[in-house]
Design a protein that fits this description.
Blueprint lengths: L5 E6 L4 H13 L4 E4 L9 H4 L7 E5 L14 E5 L1 H11 L13 H27 L4 H11 L16 H19 L7 H10 L6 H11 L2 H4 L5 H19 L1
Parallel strand pairs: 1-2
Antiparallel strand pairs: 1-3, 3-4
Protein name: Glutathione S-transferase omega-1
Keywords: Transferase
Organism: Wallemia ichthyophaga (strain EXF-994 / CBS 113033)
């Protein structure tokens, strides 16, 4: 494919996995179209785009002439899974420095992938707190692990260029932060989560606090983040559905 190929991102504004990819495309300066998928009422045709019926999915139309969003073009391809798509975007747009290229940057690529692993642990603890009622203390432990990877200044690799590691983490932390600050206290352990946010303001977490403030202020992240009100509404509804399903 070439950079003249048509890119179509199938996404859902509330989904942190899709948020990762949209932010990366924007950070790379990519030209792409966006199709919003209603996760509560997915189109009947969507499994043709992604058989798993999940977002995100990125359709690449090599001939750049297929306008029907309900199917993959004859000379096109559909790729899914957010972390796979992040690496794809980094490969398509090397000048964006989302993932350092070349032998000289082998160690830096490893650092990015290790940070993604640490971010995955944060995500699992965030979801365990949100949906299973587990302790918010585990979220703080996950942040300890993330902070251990961070430089004193800049983003993950110590400069002002965010990597796919940074962009993989941002959508999950901002949703945790917004939910903790705005949700009603009877939804889950909101008091514990607010205590975590207060702890992050202490000197011990100065490096993380500086980092995440800069990260969430990136235009590619900020412009694609759902409002706190929408975040609370959608995830409160999902919590209720999940609890009713196991009652």
């Amino acid at each position: 494919m070439t950079l003249t190929s048509r890119l179509v991102l199938y996404t859902a504004h509330i989904c942190p996995f899709a948020h990762r990819v949209e932010a990366a495309l924007l950070q790379a300066g990519a030209k792409f179209e966006k199709v919003e998928i209603d996760l509560e009422k997915k189109p009947e045709w969507y499994p043709q785009i992604n058989p798993a019926s999940k977002v995100p999915a990125l359709v690449i139309d090599k001939d750049n002439h297929q306008k029907d969003i309900s199917k993959i073009p004859e000379n096109g391809v559909s790729i899914n899974e957010s972390l796979v798509l992040l690496e794809l975007v980094a490969d398509l747009y090397p000048d964006a420095h989302l993932l350092p290229h070349g032998l000289v940057n082998a160690v830096n690529r490893a650092k990015v992938r290790l940070f993604i692993e640490a971010g995955g642990y944060f995500n699992s603890q965030y979801f365990a707190w949100l949906f299973r009622g587990e302790s918010s203390t585990n979220i703080l432990q996950a942040i300890d692990a993330l902070q251990a990877h961070l430089p004193e200044t800049g983003f993950l690799l110590g400069d002002n260029k965010p990597t796919i590691g940074d962009l993989a983490f941002a959508p999950f932390f901002v949703r945790f932060k917004d939910f903790a600050e705005n949700a009603k206290e009877d939804v889950c352990d909101i008091a514990g989560a607010r205590s975590v946010l207060e702890t992050l303001k202490t000197e011990k977490y100065q490096k993380f606090n500086r980092y995440v403030t800069d990260l969430l202020d990136l235009p590619s992240v900020k412009s694609t983040t759902p409002s706190p009100e929408l975040n609370v509404e959608k995830f409160t509804k999902k919590i209720k559905i999940m609890r009713e399903s196991v009652a």
